[in-house]
Automatic annotation (TrEMBL):
Transmembrane segments: none annotated. This is Transposase InsO family protein. Residues 102-265 form the Integrase catalytic domain. It comes from Deinococcus radiopugnans ATCC 19172. It comes from the Bacteria. Pfam families: HTH_21, rve, rve_2. InterPro entries: HTH-like_dom (IPR025948), Integrase_cat-core (IPR001584), RNaseH-like_sf (IPR012337), RNaseH_sf (IPR036397), Transpos_IS3 (IPR048020), Transposase_IS3/IS150/IS904 (IPR050900).
């Protein structure tokens, strides 16, 4: 039926596996290990960067082909409801950042925002502060509610860890928590300048929005945490162990925030 001779068939069976096939098998095994180790969070670009960091010379196209053959893909994106309450009586700061997200010095520009994480106990609210120089999360706080003290706690953690010099630019949306007298007084005490996004424009704080998108996609996607304690522990591990120290960031040339800061300091 296949028009193959008996001798040709047996010759094919005796033929050794080619070097390329052997290399593909080894490479696919390592790709699966990285994909599993990163809990399905990495697609072809980041797995390619991970392999290159290990000294493996391979093209991104080959990595993508082997991932398709193995049925591997990164977790998909989801849409999430925003938590900004801009209907408040507090004054708002001008948009001094103006989407200038590429910052050359550490602790010169920070960006903050709030989001929520679903649990079977109810929402767990998360506030983060990122250093736009390295995209590192320098401060964060979690609470069952969303008071003005929540982003303030994230800011204070960042200040304690980084000790920014006067002149720091702090950017956020124009939500009531960030516009509150309590938060603005803390910025004044630090001699920091406040900056806020334009109304209804999430792109003005795109770096933090991107972080939240990655966290929700890579940490739990379709999972609802059993309670807030479990969610807190998972978020802590994601930020402190994975995101700042292991996750390769495309904007940083596929370095981790920790590696990027270390190289910038050495330079």
């Amino acid at each position: 039926m296949l028009e193959v001779s008996v001798s040709g068939y047996h010759s094919w069976r005796r033929r050794p596996v080619s070097n390329q096939q052997q290399w593909d098998a080894l490479l696919q095994q390592r790709i699966q290990e990285i994909h599993q180790c990163r809990k399905g969070r990495y697609g072809a670009p980041r797995i390619h960067a991970e392999l290159r960091a290990e000294g493996v010379q391979v093209s991104r196209k080959r990595v993508a082909r082997l991932m398709r053959a193995g049925g591997l893909r990164a977790k998909g994106k989801r849409r999430w409801v925003r938590t900004t309450d801009s209907a408040h009586p507090f004054p708002v700061c001008p948009n001094l950042l103006d989407r200038e997200f590429n910052v050359q010095q550490p602790n010169a520009v920070w960006a903050s925002d709030l989001t929520f994480v679903p649990t079977r106990e109810g929402w767990l609210y998360l506030a983060v502060t990122l250093d736009l120089h390295s995209r590192a999360v320098v401060g964060y706080a979690m609470d069952a509610q969303m008071p003005a003290t929540l982003p303030l706690a994230a800011l204070q953690m960042a200040v304690q860890r980084r000790c920014p010099a006067p002149g720091l630019l702090h950017h956020s949306d124009r939500g009531s928590q960030y516009a509150s007298r309590m938060f603005q007084e803390e910025l004044a005490r630090l001699r920091a300048k406040g900056s806020m996004s334009r109304k209804g424009d999430c792109w003005d704080n795109a770096v933090v929005e991107s972080f939240f998108s990655s966290l929700k996609r890579e940490l739990f996607e379709d999972t609802i945490f059993e309670n807030r304690t479990v969610a807190r522990q998972a978020i802590f591990e994601y930020i402190e162990v994975f995101y700042n120290r292991q996750r390769r960031h495309s904007t940083l040339g596929y370095l981790t925030p920790h590696e990027f800061e270390r190289q910038a300091k050495a330079a």
